[in-house]
Amino acid sequence: MTAPLLPADQAHALDRAADIIRAGGLVGMPTETVYGLAADAGQGDAVARLYAAKGRPRFNPLISHVTDIAMAERLAHIPPLARRLMEEFWPGPMTLVLPRRDTAPVSELATAGLDTLALRAPRHPAARALIARLDRPLVAPSANPSGGVSPTTAQHVLDGLGTKIDLVLDGGPCPVGLESTVIAVGTSTETDQATLLRPGGLDRNVIEAVTGPLARAGDGHAPASPGMLKSHYAPNAPVRLNARTVKPDEVWLGFGDIAGDLNLSARGDLAEAASHLFAYLRKLDADGARRIAVAPIPPTGLGEAINDRLRRAAAPKDASELDIDPA
Ligand code: TXA
Ligand code: MG
Question: Which residues contact ligand 1 via a Cβ below 6 A?
Fold first, then answer.
């Protein structure tokens, strides 16, 4: 049986989603970055079902989603630098890894036993309304089978997980299109050092205007993110990067002046390219591409996260060892 699809802007749909989550179920939920697979963070059984539905390794912890700083305060200790980041960028595509409170209603499974907690306040109105209805943190990894391409439409969620979950809220295509930027604060040193664990939908430069230069995951005392696998976000077809020409058996994903068969952004706009990236990789896969060549994408601004996802999409699929920020 495939999960029903309901419009994310309707009160009855949000009520139904809240009932399902209260009862330990799994709901595909739109956020501004990608669709998440939402469950009650505090219900160990629900979280176990979520890991099983995705086929996700249990050492890879989940993000707890909250409405605002007040709710975050119930879950984690918030150093001054983290508070400034929240005030500046929440709600929005930024996740903070912070020391957890013992009393946080988040199961050990959701944090993979770590004494830290990843927190994000999403901007999408449906996600905000659902969390507010429950007044509980919701874990929500991207709503795709582990290792695959993240979903940016409700149909993508159904395609990957439709038979394993209870409901999908359809909020239209995700405007950002890349997962949140993950930053650890105050977990590594005495000071308020901030470390980039995953580049994402909030440009590093914008964050560094508040934090100063970010440390790199894996450097010195900086913590590593357990979930950064070398092969991830991978379509079925093999991917070749920085392609300025195309080979006979390839389809070409273009950018800017390189039109290719499908152009991420004809005007060379990185935000537009980010919003198209996962949907276009899926489309080329669905069209039966044998191989996908991708035009060069500049490494600046959102290009850092786009290139990070593309490198993982291109990595050999048996490259499942941990990878400490190759960027
Ligand atoms: O935009 C997003 O972040 C989306 C939407 C649905 O909110 N969610 C998402 O979740 O991308 P997921 O589970 O696919 O990625 C969570 C990332 C992983 O790389 C995980 O390892 C890292 O956050 N993470 C979670 N808890 C952590 C912790 N305590 N310490 C370090 N990294 C952590
Ligand atoms: Mg994911």
Answer: 31, 33-34, 36, 60-63, 93, 95, 97, 111, 114, 116-118, 120, 122, 140-142, 179-180, 182, 197-198, 225-228
